[in-house]
Amino acid sequence: MIEINLLPESYKVSKKTREQALPITFILLVSNGIFLLILLLVTAFNVSRVVTLHAVETRLDGLAPEQQRIIAIQQRIINLKNTNALFRPQVENRYFWAKALNYISDLTIPGIWLRTFTFEKIVISEINPGVPGEFSRRLKIGATAVSLAHDEMAIIGDFLRNLKTDKDFCRNFKLIELESVLRRKISTVEVMDFTLVCRFNEDINL
Predict the structure, then answer these.
(1) What's the DSSP call for residue 188?
(2) Domain definitions of the chain by residue range
(3) Global confidence as pTM
(4) Mind listing the pLDDT tens digit for each residue in 41-97?
(5) Which of 41, 95, 101, 113 could cross-link to 144 by cystine, CB 3.0-4.6 Å?
(6) What is the pLDDT of residues 89-118, one digit of tens each?
(7) Tell me, what DSSP letter sits at residue 119?
(8) Nearest Cα residue to 155 out of 142, 165, 140, 144
(9) Are 162 and 134 in contact (CB under 8 A)?
(10) What gap in Å lies between CA 72 and CA 80, rounded to an integer?
């Protein structure tokens, strides 16, 4: 085939020049395509992050009331534990005294009338200034012995022996002793008032 080019020489582009321009145009098109693809991927990634973040925020908003309820329940549990710790010593002390008085009642023999129970905490020594003194804690039992056979001292001795030999009662005390005795009359009947002192062990928490 014969090709006739009627353009002036100044407008004529050689075949070689056209062939050289073709790869450059192709490269530019490919580069632009790659750039557009990257731009689309980045845009899609950002949109995905926004959607995910919104979904997470919505989920957290939905969990907020439930989380508040959980925190409220946890706070109630803490308050109950604190209240229990506050009143536990009082409850334990009441239980201790109930058992101690029950032991004394069971160990009481005929002829003994129990009258008073007194808990005392006495300073027995002073240490350095600013340091608390040492205390002796003791239970004082006031009672009256009555006997038509006039053997009140024997009855008091038997009662004291019962307290000293009972393991459940005396394990809380390091010393149980007779402190005082006073004879008196009720109408025409002679009675003997006496006081027992029970000194607590140091490890008893009262």
Answers:
(1) T
(2) 16-99, 108-200
(3) 0.53
(4) 666 655 566 556 566 566 656 556 666 676 666 766 665 565 555 445 555 677 788
(5) 113
(6) 555 677 788 888 899 999 999 999 999 999
(7) E
(8) 144
(9) no
(10) 12
